[in-house]
Specification:
Elements (H helix, E strand, L loop, with lengths): L1 H9 L6 H8 L8 H9 L1 H15 L3 E4 L3 H10 L7 H14 L2 E7 L6 E5 L4 E5 L5 E7 L15 E3 L2 E8 L3 E5 L17 H19 L6 E4 L6 H15 L17 E4 L5 H4 L2 H14 L15 H28 L4 E4 L11 H13 L5 H7 L38
Antiparallel strand pairs: 1-11, 2-3, 2-8, 4-5, 5-7, 6-7, 9-10
Length: 413
């Protein structure tokens, strides 16, 4: 008890934390149904999300110090006994993009540790009035809360049988930026919500237009002056006869009594296709997600390499840095975790330029040949001299003092 009190005294607390916790309260997920639907139904959104996920999976994490072997194993190779790393991280990154958060339960009791994904949309963050996060509640929606007792990990709260409780140290939380609460992230698709609504409006109008036989608005004209009863009856009969347009065919209207047909607009079928508008919306949407639209287009392009560099530098790497920072915070402070950028060919320097750079460092006595080989992603040499610094030699001589420099003297060959 005294030890806990000393730890509490030694911890520097935020005086504003009680107010922050009270102001924002428990942080549950936003309604992400629209974003999930967009991911499933809009091809360009699905492709952009998949590109971000695939890009993240191409980059391994480098782990140094601390529990290096354990963390490297669960991060890069085997997160748990039941899932491979690709499947596990694909689901996690999809949560981040659609919901805005990744919640990972760390089972420290398992041999070597194990990571388990908690579906982000079912997790509620419970703030603490003294520190920052008190814990996490996983909301159970299928009525199986009693099964939690079978596991030695999360247990149902005493006052809420529909949620499984996890202590703050049991969950690794990676969150996207959110200006509304410090405890939850926001979906990457939220900034394009307005564009999604416009996209749905355009495509729905286009679908209904062609479903109804592609008939533009019409105006009936006549030279006679019609009384109100006749005009009302004529309009009612017209609506009744032609309000239901059959799919895939035009309906024929029979006009008599001097009635004439005139177009309401001069819109043609090409303008009704909205092809240019829809493509521009698609380009704006994927650009908001951080994917250059050029990467989604087929064909060769001379600017593809710069666009790949922009994609990895400003979209993929920042996401991976969030993951690395969260794991370093959980397993730190004597551990360093960062994404291996050189694993990406798009971010790797030109081979010739890189080789010349390291050759200069070796010949200048700044690094050993083996250090240069490692930097060039080559195996170390077993030769003894490859681990020694080379001392630069002045073999050109001195213009002011001929006794300095020049060819080395001695009998050695």
């Amino acid at each position: 008890m005294l030890k806990d009190f000393r730890v509490w005294i030694a911890t520097k607390l935020n005086p504003s934390q009680p107010t922050i916790a009270s102001e924002f309260g428990d942080a549950a997920s936003e309604n992400t149904v629209d974003y999930e639907t967009a991911y499933r139904e809009i091809g360009v959104i699905n492709r952009a999300v998949e590109m971000i996920i695939n890009g993240c999976l191409e980059v391994p994490f480098i782990v140094k110090g601390g529990a290096e072997k354990k963390v490297d194993k669960i991060l890069n190779w085997r997160p748990n006994p039941f899932q491979d790393s690709v499947l596990f991280w694909r689901q996690c990154y999809l949560d981040f993009l659609i919901v805005g958060d990744i919640f990972i339960y760390f089972d420290s009791a398992a041999e070597g540790g194990a990571l388990y994904r908690l579906p982000a949309k079912n997790v509620t963050v419970v703030p603490d009035t003294r520190t920052f996060i008190k814990g996490y509640e996983y909301q159970i929606t299928n009525g199986q809360s009693s099964l939690a007792d079978l596991f030695g990990t999360g247990k149902p709260k005493k006052d809420d049988t529909n949620a499984i409780w996890y202590d703050k140290d049991d969950v690794i939380h990676i969150q996207n930026d959110n200006d509304e609460t410090p405890f939850r992230g926001v979906s990457r698709l939220k900034p394009i919500n307005r564009l999604l609504e416009l996209y749905y409006t355009l495509t729905e109008f286009q679908r209904l237009f062609f479903t109804n036989g592609a008939i533009p608005g019409l105006v009936l004209t006549t030279d006679n002056i019609l009384s109100k009863p006749i005009k009302a009856r004529l309009l009612a009969e017209w609506r009744e006869a032609y309000s239901v347009i059959q799919k895939g065919a035009r309906s024929t209207a029979i006009l008599d009594g001097g009635l004439k047909l005139d177009r309401l607009t001069n819109t043609n079928f090409k303008e009704m296709d909205f092809e240019a508008s829809i493509e521009r919306l698609q380009e704006d949407m994927v650009s908001e997600l951080g994917v250059p639209y050029m990467l989604l287009q087929s064909g060769n392009n001379a600017n593809i390499t710069p666009n790949q560099q922009v994609f990895y530098t400003h979209t993929v790497i920042p996401l991976l840095l969030r993951v690395a920072s969260a794991f370093a915070h959980r397993f730190g402070p004597d551990i360093e975790i960062y994404p291996d950028k050189l694993a990406l060919s798009a971010l790797r320097p030109d081979a010739k330029v890189e080789a010349t750079y390291h050759a200069t460092l070796v010949n200048s006595g700044i690094e050993t040949p083996n250090e240069a080989r490692v930097a060039l992603r080559l195996e170390k040499s077993t030769e003894a001299h490859m681990d020694k610094i080379r001392i630069p030699q002045n073999i050109t001589g001195s213009a002011t003092n001929p006794s300095l420099g020049g060819r080395p003297t001695g009998t050695s060959k």
